[in-house]
Structure formats: structure tokens, C-alpha cells
Amino acid sequence: MALAIFDLDNTLIGGDSDHAWGEFLVEQGVVDAQIYREANDRFYQHYQQGTLDIHEFLSFALRPLSQHSMTQLQQLHSDFMRTKIEPMMLPKAAALLAKHRQDGDFLLIITATNHFVTAPIGQRLGVDDLLATDPEIVDGRYTGEVSGTPCFQEGKVERLQQWLEHQNQSLAGSYFYSDSCNDLPLLELVDNPVAVDADARLSAIAVERNWPLISLRDDH
User: Fold this and answer.
1) Predicted pLDDT of residue 1
2) Active-site residue among 7, 105, 183, 197?
3) b or e along 126-158 (b: 16 or more beta carbons within 10 Å of the residue's beta carbon)?
4) Catalytic residue list contains 9
5) Which architecture does CATH list for 17-87?
């Protein structure tokens, strides 16, 4: 049994769930539309460029979670799944997951996007486990702070190493699928790195290192 690891945003789904959640909050009138949208777009651009300050971003992204009860947030997320995430589902991604499942592999998503946003998406995709950036919860409410190491860049490697120790798993024969240059530290760690609908920098590295380049989008 090998470990098949997947990035989530723009890899297994045809969009970015973190950015889409911000857009959703704007559309629902939950946040100040102009200020929040501008910041959301700016952080997303920094992410794409590989220059994101993850702690600055999380301070921004987790704040709305602290302003609502768990019940309110779950209702919002249910609407978010239906209106934003379902249209991002990719048949080719489902087929890839099914192939690894048939091969007896363990399916693991590792994503920088926070656990609140991504856990229901992981369940929808039917993976075995999910590692995400963990928002802090105190007395049943989100505090707006992050708990532990953000699951981003080298943080993905750190979080995976901790998970491997607890799960008694190994990286022998492992796969990692990602679209982003931000995931280079983890791509370099696995036995089978695969670039999926990759950004320009990762595409160039994949060609240089003879890594597979694939697309899970229907129009490719």
C-alpha cells in the first residue's frame, strides 16, 4: 500500500476553495464587500506568485470564523458546498482517486486552506484523511488564531512527517499531486511527484526534472 497525497485547490478541484470562501462571504454580506474582496484577491495573487506571508493571510482569513457560532458557520458552509464547491468538482480527479483506491493506496489530502473550509470537501471526495491548516477552537468557538504549524510550503512537510509518525506510515512508493510551486518542498520528498495543471514555475521545474505533467480539467 502506497501513500497517494493530493493538494486540493486547483488540483483535485477546479478552483481555489480558500479564495472562493472569501468570495462567498462577500456575496452573503457577512464581511465588508470592497475591503474584503480587495484583500482576498491580493492574498491570492501573492499565493500564486509564491510570496504569500501565511501568518498575515491567516490573520485575515480566520477572523470571520471567530465572528459566528459553529451552527451559523455550518449553515454557511452547507450553502458554500452547494453553490461554490460542487461546480468545481472534476470527473478526472474522481477517476484518479478511484484508481489509487483500487490499487489499495491510502488517499491523503494536504492543503494550506484551513480545516473548516476543507474537511467537508475531503469527505465529499472520499479520501482517507486530510491535513489542513488548523484554526484554533476555544470553548466551542473559533478564536481567529491558527493552531500549530500552518500546512503551507515547508509546513506541509513538517505536518506530514508528524502524521507519518503517528500513523506508522512511510513514503515508500508515495505519490504527490500538486499544481503549485508552493508545494515544491513536498514534491521533492515523495517517490512519484506529479504536476497537475501546474503553474508556470512548477511546469518548468517538472519539465527540467522529467516529472509527469497531467491535467484533470475536462477541457484539456
Assistant:
1) 87
2) 7
3) ebeebbbbbbebeeeebebebeebbbbbebbbb
4) yes
5) Up-down Bundle (1.20)
